[in-house]
Amino acid sequence: MKTILVTGGAGYIGSQTVKELLEADYFPITYDNLSAGHKEAVLGGEFVLGDLADIKQLDQTFKKYKPEAVIHFAAKVVVEESVKNPEKYFENNVVNGLKLLNVMLKNGVKKIIFSSTATVYGNPKRIPIKENDPPEPINPYGLSKLIFEQMLLCYKKAYGLKSISLRYFNAAGADPSGKIGQDSPKPTHLITRVILTALGKYPYLEIFGTDYPTKDGTCIRDYIHVKDLAIAHILALKALDKGKYSSVYNLGTGRGYSVRQVVEEAKKTTGIDFRVKEGPRRAGDPAILVASCQKIKKELGFKPKYSDLKTILKTAWRWHKDHPKGYLG
User: How high is the pLDDT of residue 86?
Assistant: First the structure.
């Protein structure tokens, strides 16, 4: 079994990827400080409570487990927060990421899958967005991810580090088994907030901006099921092993849904006509983000199976109904 170090493996996407690694006969080592993750979400492998800022502990973890590759999720990811507190995002997403790369090289590990984001594109010039479209992030979160992508390219040229950056569009849903899902004290993902509103956790769902240049005035996003997203990391690992891959791939479905469309479908899925309130735009939100996914389909054989909106909402609804207190119950 190949050992893979998963930074941030106790988080929403990280824990799903750990599950997929186990099912694909890899041995995952989760390295997480639990600032946003949950140890209960890690369904196997080994768990190390650690922070990327702690170079000594990180180095000890590499020496103990001798991973063949790294999947790097650990990051701050809230766009609005990054606008208010960019220092936090550059410190964690760039500085700590650099520490990870240097410890990898010190221990002879030269393969990494990076959890990037479609936010690097900013306000795209065309839809769907292709990987060769110019990245122009409009918030510190997106910029921090782009900087790390560029660092990876520099490390490839200088040190032979092999990497694949997966630019996620909107991860959503929960594992179809019902075992793991998204548990956040202050969720910002639309679908999670929609489901929690239907469950009565919030008095209403606020739509942030209704004056965007879209058909119904609300933002349009490309939603990809968290299980499909996690499976893509397995495909990326295999591509690194074969030496046939590109440095960057979009990871979405190629189809977008507006906020209003998600709300209406959620009301059908849950059977609850929850209250909706219109509010102002959030800082740093592009109007439309929809991926061109032809490259990852052609080169890595990616075929999303769970990413239709109904399945995403159905699995999220099941998780939150069965876990009203998240992983606590």
Answer: 97
The encoded tokens of residue 241 equal 């092993």
Element (H, E) at 4: strand 2-7
74 SS3 class:
coil
Give every residue of the chain whose pLDDT is below 70, as ranges.
Answer: none
From 203, 231, 251, the end of a domain falls on 251
Rounded to 10 degrees, what is the CA torsion of 281, 8, 10, 307? Answer: 50
pLDDT of residue 186: 85
Same domain, 295 and 146: no
243 shares a domain with 126: yes
Q: What is the pLDDT of residues 266-287, one digit of tens each?
A: 999 999 999 999 999 987 788 8
Contact 158, 236 (CB under 8 A): no
What CATH number is attached to the domain comprising 140? Answer: 3.40.50.720
Of 208, 235, 251, which residue constitutes the final position of a domain? 251
The span from the first CA to the last CA of the chain, in angstroms, equals: 33
Show the domain range for 31.
Answer: 2-172+223-251
pTM surpassing 0.90?
yes
Instruction: State how many domains the chain has.
Output: 2
Tell me if 118 sits within 8 A of 249, measured CB to CB.
no
Asked if residue 134 has a cis previous peptide bond (ω within 30° of 0), the answer is no
77 within some domain: yes
Catalytic positions are 141
